[in-house]
Automatic annotation (TrEMBL):
<feature type="transmembrane region" description="Helical">
    <location>
        <begin position="42"/>
        <end position="62"/>
    </location>
</feature>
<protein>
    <recommendedName>
        <fullName>Protein translocase subunit SecE</fullName>
    </recommendedName>
</protein>
<dbReference type="Pfam" id="PF00584">
    <property type="entry name" value="SecE"/>
</dbReference>
<feature type="transmembrane region" description="Helical">
    <location>
        <begin position="89"/>
        <end position="108"/>
    </location>
</feature>
<dbReference type="GO" id="GO:0065002">
    <property type="term" value="P:intracellular protein transmembrane transport"/>
</dbReference>
<dbReference type="GO" id="GO:0009306">
    <property type="term" value="P:protein secretion"/>
</dbReference>
<dbReference type="GO" id="GO:0006605">
    <property type="term" value="P:protein targeting"/>
</dbReference>
<keyword id="KW-0472">Membrane</keyword>
<dbReference type="GO" id="GO:0005886">
    <property type="term" value="C:plasma membrane"/>
</dbReference>
<dbReference type="GO" id="GO:0008320">
    <property type="term" value="F:protein transmembrane transporter activity"/>
</dbReference>
<comment type="subunit">
    <text>Component of the Sec protein translocase complex. Heterotrimer consisting of SecY, SecE and SecG subunits. The heterotrimers can form oligomers, although 1 heterotrimer is thought to be able to translocate proteins. Interacts with the ribosome. Interacts with SecDF, and other proteins may be involved. Interacts with SecA.</text>
</comment>
<keyword id="KW-0813">Transport</keyword>
<dbReference type="InterPro" id="IPR001901">
    <property type="entry name" value="Translocase_SecE/Sec61-g"/>
</dbReference>
<dbReference type="GO" id="GO:0043952">
    <property type="term" value="P:protein transport by the Sec complex"/>
</dbReference>
<dbReference type="InterPro" id="IPR005807">
    <property type="entry name" value="SecE_bac"/>
</dbReference>
<feature type="transmembrane region" description="Helical">
    <location>
        <begin position="16"/>
        <end position="35"/>
    </location>
</feature>
<keyword id="KW-0653">Protein transport</keyword>
Length: 126
C-alpha cells in the first residue's frame, strides 16, 4: 500500500519548461547581435522580450513556482529577525575591533618569543 504522505515528483515537464526558458533567453541575446544594423531600441527590445519571456516561462514551471514560494517564505523569515539597534551594532563592532587588536598583539608577541627562543637560545645567532 502506498504511503499517502509521500509526494511523487514529476520533474520532466519542469525541466522542459526551464529548457524553453533558457532557449528564449538565448534567442533574445542572439537577436540582439543579429539585429546589429537596426536602431538601438529595436535591438534592446529584442533582448528585453527574450529575457522577459524566458523569465515568465521559468516562473511558470514547477521549479520556478517552488523558487517563488521559497523566496516568499525567506522574506517572511527575514521580517521575523530582531535586528540590533544602532547603539548595539556600534558596541559589537567596537568589541570585535578590540578583540582583533588583542589577538594581533598576542600573535605578534608569540611570534617574537618563538623567534627569540629559536634564533638566540637554540641556534646562538645574535
Amino acid at each position: 500500500m502506498a504511503n499517502p504522505n509521500v509526494e511523487t515528483v514529476g520533474a520532466s515537464s519542469g525541466k522542459w519548461l526551464l529548457a524553453v526558458a533558457v532557449l528564449l533567453v538565448v534567442a533574445g541575446v542572439i537577436g540582439f547581435y543579429v539585429l546589429a544594423q537596426q536602431p538601438a531600441y529595436v535591438r534592446g527590445a529584442a533582448l528585453f522580450v527574450g529575457l522577459a519571456l524566458g523569465v515568465v516561462v521559468a516562473l511558470v514551471s514547477a521549479p520556478g513556482k517552488d523558487f517563488v514560494g521559497f523566496a516568499k517564505e525567506s522574506y517572511r523569515e527575514v521580517r521575523k529577525v530582531v535586528w540590533p539597534t544602532r547603539k548595539e551594532a556600534g558596541q559589537m563592532t567596537g568589541l570585535v575591533f578590540a578583540f582583533v587588536v588583542v589577538m594581533a598583539l598576542f600573535l605578534w608577541s608569540a611570534d617574537k618569543l618563538i623567534e627569540w627562543v629559536i634564533f638566540s637560545l637554540v641556534l646562538g645567532w645574535k
